[in-house]
Amino acid sequence: MIDPQTRISQIKAAGKYLPKHIGEWRNAQATFTEEKLEIFGHPVMEKWEAPYMKELANIVTFNGGKILEVGFGLGISARYIQEHEIEEHIIIEANAEVFVKLEEFAQQAKHKVTPIFGFWQDVVDSLPNDSFDGILFDSVATTEDEVIVYRYSFFEQAYLLLKKGGIFTHYTGEIDIKPDYRQLLNKAGFFNISGTLCSVNPPKDCVYWNEPVILAPIIIK
Ligand SMILES: C[S@@+](CC[C@H](N)C(=O)[O-])C[C@H]1O[C@@H](n2cnc3c(N)ncnc32)[C@H](O)[C@@H]1O
Fold it and tell me: Domains of the chain: which residue ranges?
């Protein structure tokens, strides 16, 4: 695993910029290429993650129903989610250019998609508690401060938003369930925690993942 402090050092060494304020992300240019999405020159999403996104989509749709997804990116997980029998797919996205892609996706999706523009931190209070059957969280750090906490900062919110028996999954950047990770989930209210290891094949120049497997968590309220 590449730890967050190493990642911050890499970002600075590469002369790349991460905003001081979360709001700068909103109108930043998003560059879409064959293989990836970049914002501020950072690899926000890369296509080698597709098998992992498929696994997360399988997990989050296990109960069907109403699915919340945080972060649209290249829409890979969103497309896999739509292959399952669900009632509604609510997607929160904070970058304006990515949001345009999300709106196009919503228009041709098989199951109802409700796009919400904004940072999850600002919009989740408008969503009802105990209302989702599944939540897939795949955001990225949008400021330097967030590099450390972004994967964990949503846990308590996920617990509130899920129905009893609802399933939470997210991009982990882990290969096992470490005690500190479990503790953070426990603190949010989750105790039914397991996961599967998904095989992936990141290219050698990938700056954020370099293992042949990655943990797909199954976290049940
Ligand atoms: C890793 S990508 C998501 C990849 C997606 N799962 C896929 O399969 O293509 C992360 C996305 O989250 C968005 N994002 C970052 N911070 C966010 C926040 N606080 N709230 C909502 N969206 C956010 C980014 O703009 C980006 O589009």
Answer: 4-220
pLDDT at 143: 79
- Rounded Cα distance, 58 and 49, in Å: 14
Place of tokens 């523009």: 117
Distance from the alpha carbon of residue 31 to the mean position of ligand 1, in angstroms: 14
Residue 45 makes CB contacts below 8 A (sequence gap 6+) with 36, 37, 73, 74, 76, 140
Could you tell me how many residues make up the chain? Answer: 221
**Tens of pLDDT, residues 95-105:** 999 999 999 99
Tokens of 19: 């905003």
CA of 138 to the centre of ligand 1 (A): 6
| Beta bridge partner(s), residue 112 | 88
Q: Which ligand 1 atom is nearest residue 79's CA? A: 8
Q: 200 with 212: CB under 8 angstroms?
A: yes
Which amino acid, residue 162?
A: L
**Interatomic CA distance for residues 156 and 187, integer angstroms:** 8
Contact 177, 56 (CB under 8 A): no
Q: What is the pLDDT of residues 116-165, one digit of tens each?
A: 999 999 999 999 999 999 999 999 888 777 777 777 889 999 999 999 99
Residue with structure tokens 């795949």?
138
The domain 4-220 having CATH identifier 3.40.50.300: the answer here is: no
State the distance from the centre of ligand 1 to the C-alpha of 105, rounded, in angstroms: 15
